[in-house]
Amino acid sequence: MAKKIFIITGEFSGDLHASNVVRELKKINEDVIIEAVGGKNLESAGVKLFSGHDKMSAMGMNLKIILNHLLLGRRIVDYLKNEFKPDLVILTDYGAFNLAISKHFKKAGFKIFYFIPPQIWASRKWRLKTIKKNIDKVITIFPFEEKFYTEAGVKSEYAGHPLIGQMANVPNKEEFFARHGLDLNKKLISVFAGSRMFEIKFLLKIFLKAVSIIEKALPNVQFVFSHAKSLPDSAFCVPYKTIKGENQELLSLSDFAILASGTVALEAALYETPMVIAYRGPFLFYIIYLMVRSIKRACLVNIISDKDIVPEFLMYDCEADKISSKVIEIMQNPEPMKQELKEFKKLMSDKNCTAETAKIINKELMENG
Q1: Is there a domain that residue 276 lies in?
Q2: What is the pTM of this model?
Q3: Residue 316 domain-assigned?
């Protein structure tokens, strides 16, 4: 009898990573039946969607959003208990919703795996109790997470990071520079001010001022601002060249990057591109962050390596003069950071996350049939 899997994702990235796992899984088990809460990526991988993301990935915490999540959660639980009856439920990212619904799945007797678990080692460690109680196995994406969960008494397996194997190839520099009107004789500094409008609001002016200072100190440089795919064309206007939709290609050819804190720092590190990260947001959000965080570092590169490789400028340290000063300092001698980034890449391993995750899932289906 064919095995059945139900996947829950809550936003684009989880949908993308889950869809890649599904494609790998179908290569080794073409009979598996998969349904999901997901988006276009899972749908294009041949997965029947129980629900889309229209009510999942809304930002904020108002009564309507909470109600939508509660009603959807109830529908999912009822459907799985009374109709679909999966052999395995795979929660993917989207921690708040997935951890909340996990207790209902556990009560119903479902086997539950968590792929891309919430980063409880960084904040809100109390959620570990929920994972220990409800999750049968955690499939981790950072090398230190397997030890973290194992020591906490949670079954876990490291599959590698989804970015490994998904990074764009380094393009031909001459062709890329010619296509975007860049000067081959000048160093390239790329600027990533964020992928959300509130990030642009808080960071863009600071980054522009920092760029102006750097430009005066280092005349043989040129700047490109990355325009995130998720932002409308009208999101920002700067007196510098902008490139939309080629983030990884731009990072791979940059001599330096000024980044809003996030996964983009991990991408830059995998290309061994020197960088600084900066972040500023609403004061209330910062206070809440200070209350729930478990570690002092913010950059994933620094967290994973347990070293201060990438300079961090957060909240009230996020000032143009501080950022520009550090950029100028590193640009004048980038080799030490480049060497650190090479060592960091070794920590990430060369595991193909999607293939490894598919094997872990299929093994569970085959052994518990």
Answers
A1: yes
A2: 0.82
A3: yes
